[in-house]
């Protein structure tokens, strides 16, 4: 049993839901976030039924709604762990990508994380944790995901900067690059299958959202490291090293 409070954005499905479920199972005080009140209420009721000894709450807001996020910061009280999980993907080739698709992905995946983290930093207790969700495409790029990759790369830079700024309060800030089949990733996986005659190549074989949640609850939110980029795919997990600078020429 723990007396810690964890707030998870985008917690009504996929990775966010599995993180909330495992946190409730461990008897955290769990605050779920979602955009749809009916779906959020159902998730809260489900966890309360399964885990009656855990304290479960729901807060409905869209991470892109800055005023709503600011209001939540005034009402939720102190928290120990913030998991910035909410995100969207609107994939298309660069030449076909609409300005709206670019704006919507950046607004949710990057600016939305700014909104939530900016207003809730004051709620996070000294010694707390902030978790960002990034992507392999942020490090390596991925065709058809210019908007998504850019938004997730921004989160890596934000993670490393906040890790430095919040160190004085002993708040650790880390990034996780998850590989899991979810409602958001299935469409992309189907496109890859078609490209490879119905079979996924080895590098596209990925694990489950529950395995991601297990890493978050059992390892990531307990780490003393900060400013790191971790990766999880099934039973495999690791971390990305810092970029290496190579001098090409010194002008005389």
TrEMBL record:
<dbReference type="InterPro" id="IPR057326">
    <property type="entry name" value="KR_dom"/>
</dbReference>
<dbReference type="Pfam" id="PF00106">
    <property type="entry name" value="adh_short"/>
</dbReference>
<dbReference type="InterPro" id="IPR002347">
    <property type="entry name" value="SDR_fam"/>
</dbReference>
<dbReference type="GO" id="GO:0006633">
    <property type="term" value="P:fatty acid biosynthetic process"/>
</dbReference>
<protein>
    <submittedName>
        <fullName>3-ketoacyl-ACP reductase</fullName>
    </submittedName>
</protein>
<dbReference type="GO" id="GO:0048038">
    <property type="term" value="F:quinone binding"/>
</dbReference>
<dbReference type="GO" id="GO:0016616">
    <property type="term" value="F:oxidoreductase activity, acting on the CH-OH group of donors, NAD or NADP as acceptor"/>
</dbReference>
<dbReference type="InterPro" id="IPR020904">
    <property type="entry name" value="Sc_DH/Rdtase_CS"/>
</dbReference>
<comment type="similarity">
    <text>Belongs to the short-chain dehydrogenases/reductases (SDR) family.</text>
</comment>
<dbReference type="InterPro" id="IPR036291">
    <property type="entry name" value="NAD(P)-bd_dom_sf"/>
</dbReference>
<feature type="domain" description="Ketoreductase">
    <location>
        <begin position="4"/>
        <end position="209"/>
    </location>
</feature>
<keyword id="KW-0560">Oxidoreductase</keyword>
